[in-house]
Amino acid sequence: MLPASDRGRFPSGSVRIRNVEVEKWDDRYSIRPDAEGIMENGERLLIEFYVSHKVDGKKRQVIVDNHLKCIEIDINYQALDKQELKEFLCESNEDRKWIVSMPPPSKPAGESFSYSRNPMYEKTIDILKEIFDEGTITIHPFASSFSKKNKPFNLREVGYDVCEVNTKWRGFKSDLLLYRSQKDNKGHISINIRGRRRWDGFRYPKGLRIIDIVFYAIGTEESTRQRLKDGDLVGDLGMKIEYFGFKA
After folding, report:
1. Mean pLDDT calculated for residue range 157-176
2. Residues with Cβ within 8 Å of residue 70, at least 6 apart in sequence
3. Does one domain contain both 124 and 94?
4. What is the pLDDT of residues 183-231, one digit of tens each?
5. pTM of this structure
């Protein structure tokens, strides 16, 4: 499935591709696309898969300068299951785009919008891991809704028994990743310690639920343990709990 085209300059939607070849060296342009094939209209289509880095440098310049038809597909947050990946590639036009221009120049040093984490953030991760290992974590995803499920959830009681630190699931890194070992590892929950809210519309894998503990002020280890006492995630004036992906 091809991505939408800007003003019809490129084909879009479902298209059959034949003579598909993988990582074939192109002598004419001195590039090696991840895959290529011939579309129904006889034109060549290059395909690049974005995993660790996007198409850049010489390869991107060659594609742009020679008006080659090339799409880049972001598979970072996709399942490794063969059938699910096939459905994503063939039945969806999400997370893909045509390579039509060079990326904007990098911002000069000093203009980064990233924030430095207070050392207590890492300690807080350890504290939460310790609390879960010795007991449980209780969450309140529907506390502000009128759902009949407006009640806290003891994660141990609903089967969560595994907690891993600094772990990725489908490309999304979590400070703490919780899941149920007895249910085919389904229903992953990502818990993250943050110093600010996420941008609206941030991307994360389907099937993942996220809990952000946003500290507007973070103090000593003792005060942090008191805030997280018994693993009950309840916000206060200096700490807010935000939930993503939970359905009432």
Report:
1. 93
2. 33, 45, 46, 47, 48, 55, 63, 98, 99
3. no
4. 766 789 999 999 889 988 888 988 899 999 998 888 888 888 888 888 9
5. 0.69
Distance of alpha carbon 138 from alpha carbon 214, whole angstroms: 16
The type of residue at 189 is I
Tokens in use for 175? 């400070």
Within 8 A by CB and 6+ apart from 117, the residues are: 193, 195
pLDDT, tens digit (0-9, with 9 covering 90-100), for 81-139 = 888 888 889 988 888 999 987 665 555 444 434 455 678 889 999 999 999 999 999 99
| pLDDT on residue 49 | 92
Count of domains in the chain?
A: 2
- What CATH number corresponds to the domain at position 17? 3.40.1350
**Residues 94 and 136 grouped into a single domain:** no
Are residues 123 and 85 located together in one domain of the fold? Answer: no
Q: Is the pLDDT of residue 149 over 80?
A: no
Residue holding tokens 């893909």? 96
**Within this chain, do residues 71 and 174 fall inside the same structural domain, yes or no?**
no
**Range of the structural domain that residue 60 is part of:** 6-98
d(CA 179, CA 188): 5
Instruction: Tell me whether residue 104 is in a domain.
Output: no
Residue 112 lies in a domain: no
